[in-house]
Amino acid sequence: SSSRPVHDEL
Amino acid sequence: MNIFRLVADLLHLASIFILLLKIQQTKSCAGVSLKTQALYFVVFVTRYLDLFTHFYSVYNSLMKLFFIASSAYIVYLMWKPYRPTYSASTDTFRAEFLIVGAALLGLAFPDSWHILDILWSFSIYLEAVAILPQLFQMTRTGEAETITSHYVFALGAYRALYLMNWIYRYYTEGYMDVIAWVAGAVQTILYADFFYIYLTRVMRGRLFSLP
User: Fold this and answer.
1) B38: distance to nearest CA of chain A, Å?
2) If exposure means fewest CB atoms within 10 Å of the residue's CB, which of B107, B109, B132, B135 is most exposed?
């Protein structure tokens, strides 16, 4: 699951 | 974090305070779409489930908690104490179509097949169109209280600044998020008519009224 995209925006 | 994104987030925050101020000052939620507000609550709850799985920053977590809590509070205010002032007869956009459409898009084009990413994608697609019941209501009634139009303008400006944030991030970080970009562009375009009327009328001290 470490390849999941990162969503750092609100 | 860059200036476009920071100002955008603060405008988003401001829009919520403007809406709460409108309800409190006029002691009425007339002209505010409960459907749009309920959709925003669904958007925030489905998008911010990563509060439990991923920590970005105190700023990020506090903003997420605020957006969930404030949207729940607004829905509560309109549903219970201010219910008698709610203009249900003009809030007639079929919001269920938006939910079904966003759900289908989320399943067809998810960011990944992880359940949290499907819900995230659903929330991005739903946010893009969540303002439609509000815009539809303003079109039906032909005008809106000035403070309500300030609320919609702050929301639209927040979206427009996110577009600039993405251009900036693309060139400075190589950041890409196609789902958010496409949905965000659609979302901003939906405000185009409103922006025009707001800038030509409300800014000159007149009511938001359709020409």
Assistant:
1) 18
2) B107
| Binding-site residues on chain A for chain B (CB distance < 8 A) | 1, 3-10
Subunit contact A10:B63, Cβ cutoff 8 A:
yes
Which residues 6+ apart lie within 8 Å of B129 measured at CB? B98, B101, B102, B186, B187, B190
The pLDDT tens digits of the residues spanning B103-156 come to 999 999 999 999 999 999 999 999 999 999 999 999 999 989 999 999 999 999
Tell me the ipTM for this assembly. 0.88
Name the helix (H) or strand (E) containing B178: helix B178-190
Question: Are A10 and B114 within 8 A, CB to CB?
Answer: no
Q: What is the spatial distance between Cα B170 and Cα B167, in angstroms, rounded to a whole number?
A: 5
Q: Which residues of A touch B63 (CB under 8 A)?
A: 10
